[in-house]
Design brief:
Blueprint: H1 4-12, H2 41-44, H3 89-93, E1 102-103, H4 106-115, E2 119-124, H5 129-139, H6 142-151, E3 153-158, H7 163-175, E4 184-188, E5 194-198, H8 212-225, H9 227-245, H10 258-272, H11 289-301, H12 306-324, E6 338-339, E7 347-348, E8 351-352, H13 353-370, H14 373-389, E9 400-401, E10 404-405, E11 414-415, H15 423-429, H16 443-451, H17 481-488, H18 492-510, E12 518-519, E13 522-523, H19 524-541, H20 544-560, E14 562-563, E15 568-569, E16 572-575, E17 581-582, H21 592-609, H22 612-629, H23 663-678, H24 681-693, H25 695-700, H26 706-716, E18 720-725, H27 731-742, E19 748-753, H28 760-764, E20 779-784, E21 787-788, H29 795-802
């Protein structure tokens, strides 16, 4: 931890339980930098709703994942600050604070240097519960507002708009404390070097915590009396962070052994696996799509071994337990951010686009592997939710829905109010008697039995310290359909129909409740993930309707988030009045993850639709990504452009697959696929350099980079080029294509050769011109190591070849 906490406490004359620390509830997507290979929650502590939420070193409960952004933060008599001119929903939530807020930019930095004041940087996002709590408790406080305005230059940042700023200062907070989360609050020198950092602070002192007002007063005092010491220590920590965060090939020529990294990663996951409920932690328990994807890949390459079977069982069981738990919205579909307990029962109710996108793919892969329609139904439900609640009419996808909402109009918002139910509500909505049951039974009683609703509520008081959820229930599947049917002497299909009808009635009733706040900001990266979600699921299930959603999402990206003149992606766009699409001025340009995730989405969309225009655009975006982010000396990609991040003390390479995969991990896969589509050797060379640069990180903690370990395996195996020769719209071509999509083959590219020698792919891969249709039928070839199989026209024979 750089030994930094000691000097933070001594310099500021604060108790040890004060500053430079992680908040008490961990927010989504951030594990400690030393994300353990055993159990991440052991560092974080117990349930995300219990214990003290103050920013204290002694607190062990994890940081919350987000929540309310829709509380009115303004009153009519208040004058807006300069954030009123911003587009970000998060910044606009602070536009009526009595704080002289600045957005991140040169104006704020110049003011700090001119007036010789420290910068107070506060980073969060619009659906973050504890961001809102701090806004309500501290940033609306007139006295605290005066301190922030007079003694500091206060800067607000939406982490989803500026992930580079967030990553740099989160690195500092995590390195000088036990973890990180949001809101993230960091004090900087006028040269943007951090010297104190923390997360959520309560407004006033407590028995074991230091309040925000006290922190401000002491930092003000120390800046006046010991500024040189602060500056020296800040420089020392920045230098240490630079050395610590360096990722480079060094003297290494090749990446490590894929077999070794695979086995180590699997063993580390196996050690932390929850046998009963699935997942890889106690509480809080997060969906981990990158881990599930790794386990499926590991199973495929080890499927004849005990470890391979174990990996498959771990992934499928986790997905089933999540889908049965309260982390899944059984009424409206989609998944909440994480579970506050190890049973996946009581969630933190926020819904994020990136979770929906990745989980749709995970459940589709589970269906490919198992053939169990349970998983495909879950995937379809996720995408149904996204289409209904997170989709812009022009094809783009919104970022998130909040956790909090008013139980009734005019009431104070509460977490989960939109999603929980009382027994009385369910009984009133579903009073119909169930015919044929062995005892008197209503539809409501059947549903309550199956989903575990009780009169007293099924939420433990330890998960509800404020008592906001007393008597409320989270729907979670308690019994299989077979057991519920046997309990009441009913037919299984009859129970299925009754439950589905009941859930639909609850859904219609829920429409009349005040809805959670919608973060209508659209991010290129997350839209890219969602294009993948629709494309992959649509391809696996053979549903053109889902592929059309992916196509419309890609069209939205090209129309609204791509600058033709420069070839660059924009990071964000926003919903304007009347459903129009607006941009900030100047535009917020894309970061590495925007390019990596969009390129992945386009490659998935090409394989789903066989429309080569998406593949061509993917190649152009990859060229731009290489130009803007590639480290020609050390290998790998920086997270941000050099020019965009000018002034920041660090230029980082993301080295962790968390709630979202690392953009470098995704880029490694993209490079391999692009090499398969084009034969261009430079894509493969770049992939090898990237994997070599991350060698030390993979060797040290492979479980922190499961998606990159998967890419390492793909690079050291042989990529399959599956070529279908035929007309795109012909039935026999579609049958062969659907056969390919029905089989789980992660390390492949699917190519349509339509016989046109002037087509894009024919120009890239000259060998395609040598492949012929057999007897004028659509014909498949499976090519590896520059050699192709015999021609195949029967989908069943092709399936045998692909999945022996």
């Amino acid at each position: 931890m750089l030994g930094a906490r000691a000097w933070l406490g001594s310099v500021l004359l604060l108790p040890r339980a004060g500053v430079g620390l992680a908040a008490s509830r961990r927010c989504p997507g951030v594990w400690p930098r030393t994300w353990p290979h055993r159990n991440p929650s052991r560092r974080a502590g117990s349930s995300s709703r219990d214990k003290d939420r103050s920013a204290t070193v002694s607190s062990s409960a994890p940081m919350p994942a987000g929540g309310k952004g829709s509380h009115p933060s303004s009153t009519p008599q208040r004058v807006p600050n300069r954030l009123i001119h911003e587009k970000s929903p998060y910044l606009l939530q602070h536009a009526y604070n009595p704080v002289d807020w600045y957005p991140w930019g040169q104006e704020a930095f110049d003011k700090a240097r001119k007036e010789n004041k420290p910068i107070f940087l506060s980073v969060g996002y619009s659906t973050c519960h504890w961001c809102h709590m701090m806004e309500e408790e501290s940033f609306q406080n007139e006295e605290i507002g005066r301190l922030l305005s007079e003694d500091f230059v206060s800067v607000k940042v939406d982490r989803e708009e500026r992930p580079d700023v967030d990553k740099v200062y989160m690195t500092f907070v995590q390195a000088t404390s036990s973890g990180g989360g949001w809101p993230m609050n960091v004090w900087l020198t006028p040269n943007l070097q951090p010297f104190v950092g923390g997360t959520y602070f309560p407004p006033e002192d407590g028995l074991t915590r230091v309040g925000f007002r006290t922190v401000l007063l002491r930092i003000r005092e120390q800046w006046k009396q010991n500024k040189n010491t602060l500056l020296e220590n800040s420089q020392r920590v920045t230098t240490a962070l630079l050395a610590r965060s360096e990722i480079s090939m060094g003297d290494r020529q090749l990446p490590p052994s894929a077999a070794t990294m695979n086995n180590r990663c699997f063993q580390q996951l196996d050690e932390g696996y929850d046998e009963e409920y699935g997942g890889f932690a106690e509480a809080p328990k997060f969906p981990t799509p990158v881990i599930l994807s790794f386990l499926f890949s590991y199973w495929l390459s080890h499927r004849l071994t005990q470890d391979g079977s174990r990996a498959q069982q771990m992934a499928l069981h986790t997905l089933k337990m999540m889908a049965n738990g309260g982390i899944r919205d059984h009424v409206g579909q989609g998944f909440h951010r994480y579970s506050t307990d190890c049973q996946w029962h009581v969630p933190h109710f926020e819904k994020m686009l990136y979770d929906q996108a990745q989980l749709a793919v995970a459940y589709s892969q589970a269906f490919q592997i198992s053939g169990d329609e349970f998983y495909s139904d879950v995937a379809k439900g996720i995408l149904q939710y996204v289409a209904r609640s997170l989709s812009h009419r022009s094809g783009g996808f919104y970022s998130a829905e909040d956790a909090d909402s008013p139980p009734e109009r005019g009431m104070r918002p509460k977490e989960g109010a939109y999603y929980v139910w009382t027994v009385k509500e369910v009984q009133q909505l579903l009073p119909e008697p169930v015919l044929g049951a062995t005892e008197p039974l209503t539809s409501g009683q059947l549903l309550m039995k199956h989903y575990g609703l009780t009169e007293a509520g099924n939420i433990s008081p330890s998960q509800d310290p404020k008592g906001e959820l007393q008597g409320q229930n989270v729907l979670t599947v308690r019994y299989s359909l077979e057991l519920t049917a046997a309990r009441f002497g009913l037919d299984v299909e009859a129970v299925r129909t009754l439950l589905n009808t009941g859930l639909e009635k609850l859904f219609q009733a829920r429409k009349h409740r005040p809805k959670p706040h919608l973060d209508s900001k659209m991010l290129a990266a997350w839209n890219g993930l969602m294009v993948s979600g629709y494309a992959v699921t649509g391809a696996v299930l053979g549903q053109d309707r889902l592929i059309n959603y992916a196509t419309n999402g890609a069209k939205f990206l090209k129309r609204h988030m791509f600058d033709v003149a420069s070839g660059r992606l924009m990071r964000t766009c926003y919903t304007g009045s009347g459903g129009t699409v607006e941009h900030s001025n100047p535009p917020c340009w894309g970061f590495l993850e925007d390019y990596a995730f969009v390129v992945r989405g386009l490659l998935d969309l090409y394989e789903a639709s066989q429309e080569s225009a998406w593949l061509e655009w993917a190649l152009r975006l990859q060229d731009t990504q290489d130009r803007l982010f590639w480290d020609s000396q050390g290998g790998g990609y920086f997270c941000s452009e050099a020019e965009l991040g000018a002034g920041l003390p660090l230029r980082l390479k993301d080295d962790q697959d968390g709630a979202e995969p690392s953009a470098n991990s995704v880029s490694a896969h993209n490079l391999l696929r692009l090499h398969g589509f084009t034969g261009h050797k430079d894509w493969m060379d770049k992939c090898v350099c990237l994997l070599t640069a991350f060698s030390e990180r993979m060797r040290r903690v492979p479980v922190a980079l499961p998606e990159m370990v998967r890419a390492l395996s793909a690079q050291q195996q042989t990529l399959k080029q599956i070529v279908i020769c035929g007309d795109r719209q012909a039935k026999d071509t579609k049958a062969l294509v659907q056969c390919v999509h029905s089989v789980y083959i992660p390390n492949k590219v699917l190519i349509l050769a339509d016989g046109d020698p002037s087509s894009f792919l024919s120009r890239q891969l000259p060998f395609l011109s040598t492949l012929r249709r057999l007897e004028d039928q659509a014909t498949a070839y499976v090519c590896e190591n520059q050699a192709c199989s015999m021609p195949i026209t029967d989908p069943c024979e092709l399936r045998k070849l692909l999945h022996p």
